[in-house]
Every structure is written in structure tokens, then in C-alpha cells.
TrEMBL record:
Pfam families (alphabetical): Aminotran_3 (PF00202)
Organism: Streptomyces albireticuli
Origin organism lineage: Bacteria, Bacillati, Actinomycetota, Actinomycetes, Kitasatosporales
InterPro entries named in the record: Aminotrans_3, Aminotrans_3_PPA_site, PyrdxlP-dep_Trfase, PyrdxlP-dep_Trfase_major, PyrdxlP-dep_Trfase_small
Protein name listed in UniProt: Aspartate aminotransferase family protein
UniProt-listed GO biological process terms: biotin biosynthetic process
Amino acid sequence: MITESGVRNTLTFVRVCTARGADMIVDMLHTNVGEAVDEASARQRDHRYVWHPWSPVKETVGDAPILVSGEGYRVRDAAGREYLDAMASAMNSSCGYAHPALIAAAERQLSLLPHFDLSVGTHLPVGRVAERISGLLPDGLGRTLFVNSGSEATEAAVRIAHGYWRNLGRPRDRIITFAAGYHGTTLVAQHLSGLPTNVTHTLDPFPVTRVELPVPARELRAPESLAPLVEAFERAVLDGAPPAAVFVEAFLNVGGGVVLPSGFLRALRELCDRTGALLVLDEVFCGFGRTGRVFGFDHEGITPDLVTMSKGLSGGYVPFAALSTTEAVYRSFAADPLIGGLRYGHTTGGHAVACAVALAVLDVLEERKLVPAAAARGEELLAGLLPLAEHPEVADVRGLGLVATVECHRPEFAAGLVARARERGTLLRRQGCSVMAIPPLVIDRAGVAELVRTTGKALEDH
């Protein structure tokens, strides 16, 4: 029987045959039937034409895996080898790979309306997903702007914070943040960070005060570190012009997988209330279940003034991000003298297909109870990895929800640990000296046990 899907696949194949030549035909044929592609050709093509982000420029072809498919929390490379993905792709694969509900949502919306410019019209999925997000956030955070990436959400948050104070007739432009924080790689996002890799080499667009950690990362989660950390932020806020906003992550991800002390976000909320600064929470990494709560700030029971979101919101299936804020912040933009609204947006911001996929992601999170599952699996993961702290090359083992950090004393050792784990079929992520396990939220107990076992074996291989 010839199905509609079969016809579509055949037509796609014929178009590719005509346009790209024999090597791509072979790749497509092999991928469709689940066999290995021509790995050597694929690797040479990638080396010749692709500029990889956050990667060294190489004169020789590397051996990084060429991934061709995935299912659940596993991926398969061009050589047919399977890996447990403890990176969740780009830390955004919340629902895992090949999820039928997410694929169906994208296909359905593509057949109806892929997108429409939200500055001149609207579409059904955008209102629906905004409503769903509002229902997950604390009361008061009911107005959402949609963009394409976490970096763009950061750009919007800074623009909104600055615009809010201009709208009130009391301009403020200084931002307070962590020196070890990370909020994206656009100019404004990199300007916020004090990480060496984020230096922009341009004139500063606005003043930023970056707060250094008062103690090493491995000590920061201890209760006694709360007071010096809060004092450091208080000094930053009070020393200088009144800040427009305090902009922090609930968990320092790229900054080393750092768990913050309990009570810190509550203290920041009180500090912002006292000084008038807006509190912006970067939930790009933490949001939608990663920490075992819907949002990282839910552990503290606070309400920020602005929240940035991305990654897990669309499960890695399509680019999507959002920023939610209060009605008061939103309404202040009626005072804008030029258009009476926000002068910011993107061609595909609030893309209809992305909105539809995000709705399906939220359904899956709810139906499969993936947020409490992340808390439970995270406890198992951390408990399994804690014994690794006894290794002389390991400085600390810590975690929050379904993210665990093995901090090494040397970045070279951390890189070797990641390489050895990959040889054993597990993909881990490295941030400097920290090796991080960040599997999709759909991972089960058997997957967690395998992740613990292979990481331990990789450490023993040293």
C-alpha cells in the first residue's frame, strides 16, 4: 500500500537526488533504513563547510560523533553506535528524541499556518501557549513576549528593564549580575557575563556590576555561604547609581554547574523590593523541570519581575524562547513616545509551529509527570555519583534536580573524563573543570544507573 507519508518521502528523496548528488543520496537511503551513513564522506563535508560554535579551529578532521537519529534518551551516530545522551542535546531535550506527540504537533501546525507576523496579526497557538505559561508561573507574571533563543530573551529583558525606568521618567541603566553568570552570546548577553570566554572587545553599552563568588563553588551551597553572598550583592546594589535590575540564574550552569545556597533568591527579592530594582531570573536552563521544580526559583517560593525561558520549553525540536513579566511592566510601555509599545521583535518570534510544539511539550511534562520524575531521578543520579568525590582528581560532586556536576581539579582531567565516558557510550558535558550530567527528563531508573556506572568506570580508567 502506498501511503501519503510514503509519497512525501519519495518526493523528498527525488528532489534531493536531483539537487545534491550521489553521496547525499547514499546518506539518505542509509539513514532511512537505519543503517550507517558514509561516515568518512560526512566527516569530510562537515570539516570543509561547517563552522562549529564554541569549538577550536582545526586543520584536521576531528572524531566528534556525527549523530543521525535518536529515540528517548539515546542517540545514534553515523557509524551505528548508540550513546546515552547525558547532555540532553544542547541541554534542551526535555522530552527526549522522536517523541510522536511533538512531531505530530509540528506537522499539524505546518499544514495549517507556519507563522504570521505578530506585530500586525496573531495566530491561535501563541495565545494558547502564553496562557499555559502564565498558569505555570506565580500570580502576576501574566504577560509573555516570544523570541527564538535564550540570548534573544536576555536582550529583550535588558531592553525592557531599561525601558521600564525610562517610561517612569526615572532612567536607570546599571545591571547587577554574577561574574560567573551566563546569559547567552549576543552582544548584550555577553556583556552581562564576567566569564573569560564572553569578553566582547567592544565599548560597554551600559554599566554592569559583576559579583564574584565569595567562596569556591564547591562551598557555595553550604548554609554558611549565604550571608557573604547576599552581602556581596547588597554592596553591589548600594555602591553606585541605583540599578535597573538584578539579573541572575537560579543555578550557575556554564559558570561551572554551581548550586546556590538556599535562601539566596529570597534575599535577592527582599533586596530588590527595598531598592526598587527589578529582579530578573534567567530560567533558560532551569525552566520546565530541570531542577525538579517547574522553575528554579520555585525552590524559594518567590516571584521575579521578569523571567527568561527557552531550552526545555520546546524540547529541542524547534528554536523557541520567551520572556514573561508583570502587567505593570507591560503597561509602562504605553508611555513610549514613538509607538506606545515595545520597540523590539524578531521575524520568527512566536513562530506558530514553535508555539504548537511548546504546547505539546507542556502536555507531555504534565501527562508523564516529568517534573517530579526529574526530582526523583535526580536524587538517584546524585546519590550514585557522590562516591566519586573520593577520587583524588575530583574536587566536588553536587546537583540540583536532574543535573549533576562532578567538579575536577584540572580542566585537562575533566576533558579526559568526558572522552573516556564517550568511549563507554555516554555523552557528558564539560564546563571548564566541571563535568555535568544533564540527561533528558524522560530518562528512567535503568538509564540513571547506566549513567552512574559508565561515569564511574570512566573515572576509574584514568
